[in-house]
Amino acid sequence: MSDDLAERVEDVLAVDAAEFEAQANADAEVLKHELREGTFDNHQSIVGLEYEFYAVSDGRWSASEDDVHALMRVPRRLLGLMGFEKELGLHNAEMTTSPQPLNAHGLRAQESEVRARLDAALDCAAAEGMRLVSDGMWSIPPAGESASEYLTDSVTDGGVRLATNMSNSVRYHAMANGPTAPSSFTLEAPHVSLEADTVMPEALITSIQPHYQVPHAVDLPHFFNYALRIAGPLLALGVNSPFFPADLYDDDVTTAEILDDGWDEHRIAVFESVLNSGDHEKVMFPRDLDTVEDAVDRVVSDSTMVPMSVERGDRFDDAFATLRRKHGTYWRWVRPVFDGASRSSANARIEFRPIAGQPTVRDSVAFQAAFAGLMERLPRQDHPAIAIDWQTAEENFYTAMREGPHGDIYWLDADGNEVSGAELYEDLLVHARDGLRLAGCSKEEANYYLEPLRKRVETGVTPADWKRARVSDVLDDGADFETALRTMQREYVEHQSETLLEGEFADWF
């Protein structure tokens, strides 16, 4: 295969789509056989975390005040030194933790690994005059560029469209060039509309993705359906992307309209609108599952954007490698995953995707712990929340996207009573704590992990609320919207530089 990116994309486009689909179907039968044989069963729950960042200027070498904390491209050699992985944009870096048993030692190991690797990565980045930021969406574009230019700039090489600021992942570039690719990819949100030749507008956003491995694969649907019920309430506590870069807003919009009509978690709208462009429906709140085989069949029936060839090696999951490749563009806000390098490490897990990057490591780990604790407790207790119908769970999710915890989110408590607001979160966090206790954490340890979320409930302040308040304060001092937005974003980065590794979001106010 050629080293030239355009030629590599052309190689992908030459793959026979019908053969790809046929192999994915055959792989699904292999996977379902292994599921029936119990290959994916484990004696304990396992947790892991994917953690995305973007890079900004640390300000030391900025030519002007406008360049301070502006977005920066991460040199590829630096990613290797950090031990991080590339993501969609050149400004991105991603960390994936080593899976650990869900117990007190495993959670400590997760938090310690994130801190240790991030601390080392921050040192590497500082040598280049940059800083990694944990956030839901960036809002200050690179120095000398607009956000629109950065997200839409592309070139055509031999008829292949290539995004200028996208990493050299063939899959990402191929999405804009296949036979089913739309003529353009559209970002839509209140008072924002952006068209691009590629999926690059999705690179506005960053997230954390906790994983929970179920002990018995046949039970995955029961856990999965509970995960759908908690998706709205947990998303509401984690909202962290109320603003776009200033130049992406419509020319005729007023500051008052931006503040009044904007949502708390625009990251959801970015991912859905960009990747659901054209005839594809790739990103959505998924339906309930009835059986574990249904989870496999959904991947098979999902529309294929990029039918890439797959080289099969000696890994256990290479027996269904084409299906795994197709799963790579099967985006759902809660997603089942089946893989494993060996038969003994084969696992069935739930990937929880609603949560934005958080202001501090401790806040991010709090969501990982809460999700794991709720997965440990709610299904085993047959908590009444499972009786919340799917449509209501979906409505909760998009209410949380728009209004955070201040919206009307429906919940059933342990006694089956309808509750909302503080009563909802009292029930949710108590069961998360009890789940962590079941997993072997002491009461003090469980409370430690959940404290950042409890403080958000007590104060009524989410990261999105903090951002809105700071923008409003600067506007009240007479600044225009762009100045207020940049001021807020710089303060966000500066607060984070003091608290990312050792503090928590509640220290900010």
TrEMBL record:
<dbReference type="InterPro" id="IPR050141">
    <property type="entry name" value="GCL_type2/YbdK_subfam"/>
</dbReference>
<protein>
    <recommendedName>
        <fullName>Glutamate--cysteine ligase</fullName>
    </recommendedName>
</protein>
<dbReference type="InterPro" id="IPR014746">
    <property type="entry name" value="Gln_synth/guanido_kin_cat_dom"/>
</dbReference>
<dbReference type="GO" id="GO:0016879">
    <property type="term" value="F:ligase activity, forming carbon-nitrogen bonds"/>
</dbReference>
<dbReference type="InterPro" id="IPR016602">
    <property type="entry name" value="UCP012666"/>
</dbReference>
<dbReference type="InterPro" id="IPR006336">
    <property type="entry name" value="GCS2"/>
</dbReference>
<dbReference type="Pfam" id="PF04107">
    <property type="entry name" value="GCS2"/>
</dbReference>
